Amino acid sequence: MKFKNKGRKIYKTKEKNYYGKSGAGKAFSVGLTILLLGGLGFIGYSVAEPLVNYSKKKGDKDAVSPTSAVVTSENATDSTTIPVETMPGITPPQGVNFEAYKGASLKADDLLSAEALELAIGRLPTGQGIEYLAVPLKISGGAVYYSSEVFYAGPAKASTDMLTLEQIVSAINKAGYKPAAVVSIFDDNLLPVTDGGCGYRTYTTDEQWIDNDVSAGGKPWATPYSDLAVSYNADIVSEISSAGFKKVICSDLVFPRFRQSDLDILDPELSTPARSMKMTAAANMFNDRILKNGSSMFIEVSAADIIMENNDILQPMLLNVNTVVLDLNIDELSSGVYTADTVYDFSGTVSEKAEKAVNMVEDDLSEFNIVIRLSGDSCSMMDFVEARDALVKKGYESFILG
């Protein structure tokens, strides 16, 4: 089990890791792989097999059937599909995505009625290459914005008369987009109210932990240490992925930003790096459910959380998910990002703030495919488009606007 070294950072280039690599780069990588495997075959299978396994991307699962996987080399004028079965020794990992992801996101309130959803889709910008439309079906705080059959989702419904998943998928498909879903996982303040065993408990007295004083609006959080909380979210993502959503973006795979006074009264393991195993195990369960339904899973992590090192989920040796949505919430960044001994100031235009944040965190994401999400209520869609264009020049081709 490998954990990040918190000492001096060595900044790496991102060309071989970012999501949406150029066609020439992909073809060059495939060619090198064939040459290397050819050389290994000359030495002998007993040596080549362990080396091939070691060279697999960290966090990737074992191979899928080679008859159903292809490697695609794409550029503006040519597209070549190379069947994997023609490349001896290459067995692609499950869930790897080779195409660029280009999407936009709606607001939770857009799902309150069929009319609101139709109007929101009609307001999306044209000519921006948007292919996927992401809808927030379970938001931070725990509210559920669709008519769910999952047992504990009933008390969490944002309204008594929500749209069904089939209605949402149909509206998105009718407008010419592919449906994607955003599901907040452990930033859930409603589930522990319904069942106290789903939240954090004090270690010696078994009382419910909340994130602040009651007078200051303190709330409980769902925890990956609760089998019921994990099962509830697994049922949610399974229900969603089986309804026709092509991508399921799981956000808030995080622990609360504990103070030392909190850690002093909670399970001692929460003060150790070992806690990341619970978080990644939950993510892998969600991934398994989603893959079984023919969809794929992304993990969303905010740039602010990475800067504050609240990023336990980013363990490529433990994760079976290889794509991270980096949320650049401009409102959050503009307020400054605070760590124990540093305040990071983000000033300037939206594009400048976004570029600064990416420069600060891209080393932490060097072993993942990256989709850039630009969000924030204070920004216009034009702000997001301009920031997106600036990041495309840096090599980031996958994005979510809004």
SSE layout and pairings?
Layout (H helix, E strand, L loop, with lengths): L22 H21 L1 H11 L14 E5 L4 E5 L18 E4 L8 H9 L9 E7 L26 H10 L3 E7 L6 H4 L32 H15 L5 E5 L8 H4 L11 H18 L3 E7 H5 L15 E7 H5 L2 E2 L4 E2 L5 H12 L7 E7 L5 H13 L5 E3 L1
Parallel strand pairs: 3-4, 3-12, 4-5, 5-6, 6-7, 7-8, 8-11, 11-12
Antiparallel strand pairs: 1-2, 9-10
Helix pairs in contact: 1-2, 3-4, 6-8, 11-12
User: Main beta sheet: strand number and arrangement?
Assistant: 8 strands, parallel, barrel
Q: Give the tally of β-strands.
A: 12
Topology as H/E string? HHEEEHEHEHHEHHEHEHEEHEHE
Low-confidence stretches: 1-98
Helical percentage: 25-40%
Q: What is the compact description of this entry?
A:
It is built from twelve helices and twelve strands. It is of the alpha/beta class and 402 residues long.
What does this structure look like?
There is one protein chain. By secondary structure, the protein is α/β, with parallel strands linked by helices. The protein is 32% helix and 15% strand. The chain has helices at 23-43, 45-55, 114-122, 165-174, 191-194, 227-241, 260-263, 275-292, 303-307, 330-334, 350-361, 381-393; strands spanning 70-74, 79-83, 102-105, 132-138, 178-184, 247-251, 296-302, 323-329, 337-338, 343-344, 369-375, 399-401. The strands form three sheets. It has an eight-stranded parallel β-barrel with strand order 3-4-5-6-7-8-11-12, surrounded by five helices. A two-stranded antiparallel ribbon has the order 1-2. Helix 3 (114-122) runs parallel beside helix 4 (165-174) and helix 11 (350-361) crosses helix 12 (381-393). The chain is globular.
